[in-house]
Amino acid sequence: MAIPPYKAPASTGYDIVIVGGAAVGSSIAYWLSQALGASASILVVERDSSYEFSSTALSTSAIRQQYSNPINVKISQFGIEIIRGFAERMAPYFKGEPAPNLGFREHGYLYCCSPEGVEAARARVDLQRSLGAHTLFLEPGLLKDRFPWLNVEDLGGGAWGSRDEGWFDSMGLLNGFRRAARAAGVEYIDNAVTGLDVAGGKVIAARLATGQTVSCGTLVNAVGPRAQQVAAMAGLSIPVAPYKRYSFVFSSATPIPGRMPNVIDLSGTFVRPEGELFLTGNTPLDDGPADYDDFEMHHEEFEERIWPALWHRIPAFDALKVQTSWTGHYEYNMLDHNGIVGFHPEVTNFMFANGFSGHGLQQSPAVGRAVSELIVHGAFQTLDLSPFGYERIPRNEPFLEEAVI
């Protein structure tokens, strides 16, 4: 893939070096800059500032509260708070220009549920509602009344997020965090970390593709699907790898009336409106680790698997035409599909912010704040993300999330 020309850093040493400047890395940079101001030097190293192949740019840019773990629900609730107030929060950094309006489309998620899965689905809804979410469980009749275009014959019902779920502008979020961080003095460079120097149980320096070496007080790994590459530079290992996801935007000869949510079918296929068009994707059959630079498209996934699932669930989707498509990467945590957040116990200034398994964009506001708290205060101050700590990885103790798409 084409990479912009690399640039050298302005200094030879920084208090904090963040490797990766997409949504998670830039959120970390933003929250650190808010907490530390000019009292700390912060460098963000981003290998491709066009973000063309970043998971942020290639994501489906959605947020939900329908999780089985309370901490994931709370993370998304904070994300919604940030999304709703983003333009106001960012206004001071845009000085006369319009601040990013993230265009939040509050259509909700609709999880289709099999008859056998009703009990578990109801339990998840009860959990979410106990935490303040607005999820509703709809039995087949009520589901058909609300969404008459849906085939409910083989369903036991559906869980619908009636508020605070939907989709938004991913690059608006990234660009806002990035601009605010830079305005506060954070330095961004187009470069790649090619090695780390470790001594005395700490990362003491990062080596760059342009030949420079920069010393650092703290090293933050926020490179998304390339997380294991950076971990290995410090002699560490995490079970995170790129997993390909294919996205298709299509037109339908028959429109879908009303306010269509993001429908998650029993097959794992999802579909939602995208203006006059529709966006869809699924978990491919060949799901497994991919090469870091493998963005080859598999168009047959739509014809062979996605369209039949769509037509079964939404019979109006009998005449479809793909308009555009792309391949993105999940930074997939193969242990438990949840993020890894926190310092390594032996390389004590190496911070993980990795493995969000397709949830990184929606979780980036809370993760950025949490990483900042750990660096600045040595402990979480708001949401306790300790279940995401690295320590569970070598113990092989999954912190499982049932609601994975």
Automatic annotation (TrEMBL):
Organism: Mesorhizobium waimense
SUPFAM superfamilies tied to this protein: FAD/NAD(P)-binding domain
Transmembrane segments: none
Pfam families associated with the record: DAO
Signal peptide limits: none
GO CC term, one of those recorded: cytoplasm
Record carries keyword Oxidoreductase: yes
Gene Ontology molecular functions: oxidoreductase activity
Protein name: FAD-binding oxidoreductase
Methyltransferase listed as a keyword: no
Keywords from the UniProt entry: Oxidoreductase
Domain FAD dependent oxidoreductase: 15-374
Lineage summary: Bacteria, Pseudomonadati, Pseudomonadota, Alphaproteobacteria, Hyphomicrobiales
Gene3D superfamilies assigned to the protein according to its UniProt record, in alphabetical order: D-Amino Acid Oxidase, subunit A, domain 2, FAD/NAD(P)-binding domain
One BP annotation, GO: mitochondrial respiratory chain complex I assembly
InterPro entries reported in the protein's UniProt record: FAD-dep_OxRdtase, FAD/NAD-bd_sf
